[in-house]
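BACKBONE STRUCTURE TOKENS:
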Amino acid sequence: MRNFFNSNTTDFTKERVVYYSISLLMSMLFFMFFFLVFGIYLISDEHYFFGILLIFVSLYKLIFEYKHLFLVNEQQLKINSLGIQVKKVVFYPWDKIEKEKIESVISGEDTNYYLTFDVIGSKDKIRILINDFNISPKDLDKLIRIHRYYYG
């Protein structure tokens, strides 16, 4: 992960492109493949219920994560001096964005992080899941605050 701050000065990267994290995706694929093999082992050991359950869950997650593998090289967010661009499609200039923040939503043992902001002049509230990105929620929050301060 490339650092966007220079510790000696207040310089930072003027444009940051955010992608899906390849290491997170590969580790998830590895664990799901392991669970698939373990499910097959359980079936061969005559633990049919747990084996079949584990196979179905791991296959579902493998297919879901495999789809993400094709999106690894696609831009998910671009933050620069002009604004925030989401998935190379929608661009929001800084003068049309307000109340940008990183929200954490806790559900049981899971915590999901979202980049949220309101679009001025419309009733849209943009909410983007950022758990799987190649930037931490803390660094993304810092990056957005700095861009807002300098350019917003």
User: Anything to note?
Assistant: The chain has a mean pLDDT of 83.
